[in-house]
Amino acid sequence: MIRVTRLNGKPFAINAELIESIDVTPDTIITLVNGKKIVVRDKFDEIIDKVVEYRKICRLLPND
């Protein structure tokens, strides 16, 4: 999960594995694999950095 912020300033977590694309129009819009679109305050590069960090952490966790 990564933490992002809605336009109203409220933070929430989103499953990084469900992100299909991120667009800037000028708002940042996250599109999920199910087609749902979420508009957030976070910048494009910030979200990319969070997803990369999330995936690094996932590789470090032991597989059960």
Largest sheet: spatial strand order? 3-4-5
Rg, Å, rounded: 12 Å
Distance between the termini: 19 Å
Estimated structural class: alpha+beta
CATH fold label = OB fold (Dihydrolipoamide Acetyltransferase, E2P)
Tell me briefly what this model is:
The protein is an alpha+beta fold and 64 residues long. The chain has one helix spanning 44-60, and strands at residues 2-5, 11-14, 19-24, 28-32, 37-40. Strands 3-4-5 form a 3-stranded antiparallel β-sheet, with no helix packed on it. It has a two-stranded antiparallel sheet with strand order 1-2.
Commentary on this structure:
- This protein is an alpha+beta fold.
- It has one domain: OB fold (Dihydrolipoamide Acetyltransferase, E2P), CATH 2.40.50.
- The chain has 1 helix and 5 strands, in the order βββββα.
- The chain has one helix spanning 44-60; strands spanning 2-5, 11-14, 19-24, 28-32, 37-40.
- The strands form 2 sheets. It has a 3-stranded antiparallel beta sheet, with no helix packed on it. A two-stranded antiparallel ribbon has the order 1-2.
- The two termini are 19 Å apart.
